[in-house]
Amino acid sequence: MGANEFATDGTIDSFENQHPGRDYEIRFDAPEFTSVCPMTGQPDFGTITLVYVPEARCIELRSFKFYLQSFRERGIFYEDVVNVILDDVVAAIAPRRATVTGDFHARGGITARVTATHPQA
Amino acid sequence: MGANEFATDGTIDSFENQHPGRDYEIRFDAPEFTSVCPMTGQPDFGTITLVYVPEARCIELRSFKFYLQSFRERGIFYEDVVNVILDDVVAAIAPRRATVTGDFHARGGITARVTATHPQA
Amino acid sequence: MGANEFATDGTIDSFENQHPGRDYEIRFDAPEFTSVCPMTGQPDFGTITLVYVPEARCIELRSFKFYLQSFRERGIFYEDVVNVILDDVVAAIAPRRATVTGDFHARGGITARVTATHPQA
Amino acid sequence: MGANEFATDGTIDSFENQHPGRDYEIRFDAPEFTSVCPMTGQPDFGTITLVYVPEARCIELRSFKFYLQSFRERGIFYEDVVNVILDDVVAAIAPRRATVTGDFHARGGITARVTATHPQA
Amino acid sequence: MGANEFATDGTIDSFENQHPGRDYEIRFDAPEFTSVCPMTGQPDFGTITLVYVPEARCIELRSFKFYLQSFRERGIFYEDVVNVILDDVVAAIAPRRATVTGDFHARGGITARVTATHPQA
Amino acid sequence: MGANEFATDGTIDSFENQHPGRDYEIRFDAPEFTSVCPMTGQPDFGTITLVYVPEARCIELRSFKFYLQSFRERGIFYEDVVNVILDDVVAAIAPRRATVTGDFHARGGITARVTATHPQA
Amino acid sequence: MGANEFATDGTIDSFENQHPGRDYEIRFDAPEFTSVCPMTGQPDFGTITLVYVPEARCIELRSFKFYLQSFRERGIFYEDVVNVILDDVVAAIAPRRATVTGDFHARGGITARVTATHPQA
Amino acid sequence: MGANEFATDGTIDSFENQHPGRDYEIRFDAPEFTSVCPMTGQPDFGTITLVYVPEARCIELRSFKFYLQSFRERGIFYEDVVNVILDDVVAAIAPRRATVTGDFHARGGITARVTATHPQA
Amino acid sequence: MGANEFATDGTIDSFENQHPGRDYEIRFDAPEFTSVCPMTGQPDFGTITLVYVPEARCIELRSFKFYLQSFRERGIFYEDVVNVILDDVVAAIAPRRATVTGDFHARGGITARVTATHPQA
Amino acid sequence: MGANEFATDGTIDSFENQHPGRDYEIRFDAPEFTSVCPMTGQPDFGTITLVYVPEARCIELRSFKFYLQSFRERGIFYEDVVNVILDDVVAAIAPRRATVTGDFHARGGITARVTATHPQA
Predict the structure, then answer these.
(1) Which end of chain D is more exposed for a tag (fewer CB within 10 A), N or C?
(2) Cβ contact (<8 Å) for D43 and G72?
(3) pTM exceeds cut of 0.80
(4) What is the value of ipTM here, to two decimals?
(5) pLDDT at I7
């Protein structure tokens, strides 16, 4: 079966949008995101939410899972996580609109949320 | 009694809107939606929400239940489920406005939501 | 005591708005609404919400309770319940604005919500 | 200590706004409001919410508590509770904007919410 | 390791915004805020929320934790807490936009929330 | 089809327990119960929960729905509702154990719950 | 109608238990309880829960509402509220078992719950 | 990789319990269960929960997923679903203890839960 | 007024139990507890719950608030906080039974709860 | 400061129990647990809960965090995760009693929970 036809190497794969005549919205919620704090070397945890309106291509969900897993060993700040994911999504599928949000677990008693949108309003 | 007068064959049946002079909104939430993933053959699950403003006709709720059940054995992607339902609703009753949302259960730790609206804003 | 001075016969009674110079909002939530399905003869259940801005008169709450109870034996569709209540409220007190929502329990696994507003936006 | 320097007699006391150059919002939620139904003599219960933007003066919280307690033995309708509190707040501190909401417990199975705003939009 | 390279003395430290070309939002929720009531000498408790869009610099989260801890022994009113934090954030990083909210625990049965935004709308 | 083979006249119908060798538990939650207060003539509302261990026979769910609907026009106190349902269940299927609970909506600001079990512990 | 046949003067009225052969449980939840703190003169608020197994008599719900209202102007400590209500219930209906719980709102940031049972275990 | 080494044909596969010296508990919650009502031919939905203490063998999770999917086209009553799953689990791994619960969606406004345990207490 | 007649110096004050003939339970929930971590010097936060059955004396609530505040500047481990409070309660009022629980906020992504009871079971 | 005096290498460190005369309970909830599925190589996620009664030694919380992090790259089944942690806790501090629970995220639509206790009941 074709379960292997999409990328599992951490790149965001895509398929053709079957409904390009309509401005419709797709949202993925990924509560199993984890990366590494570049200052302390400790793991960080959070939920990544992607909301986008496709143009010619849609993100293939399974490749997106592997893409998010590629952050598991990566030292990166919260602000960069969200901006990098947004940049990669835009590079992969050139959506009409896209917003990425990261909701990160409390550190020092403080939770953080970062949200970035393309294109600028 | 007339419980059988509407369709049970998977087509969306309708009745005459008794209040056409008013722009009012009808919403159905159907948490028992299930279809089949065309890539893996595994069942998918989700909640379909339809919100519409009727023009001349309203959707008959019981026929809509049978219509949604017609997806039970059908291999179809999330993005297509929502767009196909919206197309079928528009074809059946030509509403003033309609929005269909599909909230699908987590696969690979990621939940998906697709939303489409007619007509385009 | 004056507890009997308002209607208990199912008509919507009212009293004079003491603050007509101000556009203020009144909301009633009635989760004990029940009527009868005209197709199956089975009871339906739901919550009726009325939000309105009074003009010269306000709805007397106790009479509104009896008014809603008058649907208990009445065979009526969801779409009609909401539009009829809105019409009756408008006829009774001619409010500046009014919205009626009916949130009905699941039938066949699907819940329904109908919302109507006066005047049209 | 100065805990007694503000009013405890049921009048709304105030202090000078230290940040008059900024339009900022203050919200009080008071879930222990109780008054008396003028028709039945029975106690009513609810939550009063005040949201305002101060001009020259801010409401002193402790005096506001005593002010709300002054309704405890007072026979007054829901609609009047909210409008009277708004009038008294406006008279006491002349805020740039103020909204008062009363969420009252169910009577006869129906809950009521009244909301009033100054100045008119 | 560099865990000590940012301020721990109660000043708000910052680092360079790596994505200045994009208007993106950062939110911190700090539910462990405590200060002292200047009237009674009793401790106050609340949650401080900061939402901002960075310009050239971002707030370093750990220094912000120490900054909020500097209020622990400080006698200060709710209204001042929020305005002072907003002023200090603006002074530290000159953000494009910033909003500070303080949600304070009930005193005398009444909870308080204060919200201030920079710049004025 | 056999959908009509069980009672719809308000009697509790049953079918043969296919697993009599095992002590297993069946629970029905019916949140759409309504009867009439014999003192005021006003409708009462509540949720009826039945938990039982079958002996030779199980309760047919659809007939139980019609049985509960038979209370719709009946004047009966809360305490009696629960004891009568328990008696009728015991008479209909002689279960090994059964418990009936009624959770009734607030009247005069007070909610009531009545629970009865057969046989006595 | 007989709505007035039970006490409204603050005594706990009762009616004959129709099911004395069965040990069944009755629970009342009264979230609108208010009394006065005997030390500060300030109002206290809480929820009173009564759970009992009747012997010969059951508590009439409406008289219980008036009974609880009789505490509205009464200066009494939390510990006494619960013990006094339990004593009064026992005196009024001599139940097989009874438990009274009072859940009182936060004072000084601390909530209190008092629970007493008759007879002693 | 060995992802295919366990059954996908609807039988419950197992692996050797690595900790047989300890009485420990394993719980699976499967909210995507669906079967068919044998009386109406309509789909049923529910959550199956299995709690067991293994003896020599543990249930392989992926084969259990396929096992539950084998009910998708099967006409079967609620009471039978739970007893059949319990019997199949006992036959497959002979656990020290096992309990199966089925929480089924509302039909006719009534939800049902069936619970069976092996061995009998 | 007598609001000052009890201790405010951090000792647990008490008053005579008016119902010594009955084994009844008193519970205080104090969500505003804060102390200092003796290893890092950073503030800790948590909720302290005390449940006790009084013998001859009851804890005066206001003095208990001041007692808990005495931990505000104290360096102490979670395990000690709970045991020390229990010891102090036992020393102050010699209750029939007492349990102290501390629910502490996440540190390093892990929350901690400590529970101690007197006397030993 | 002594923040480094406990283990950070993945071993469970401990300190002397200051209250050995009392049977008290300590609970840690760690929602940031992640390991790797040995069959698919994909990351697993879950919450580990440890509840124990100390004998001579208590678990040092920070070393426990590092201990749990040592599973991050480890291929291990759910059943083994829980039993291994329990074994390691018992080996490290020989508690009077200890229970470990792992609540793992849904895989294939099914969540799993494993619970093990020492010593056997």
Answers:
(1) C
(2) yes
(3) yes
(4) 0.92
(5) 82
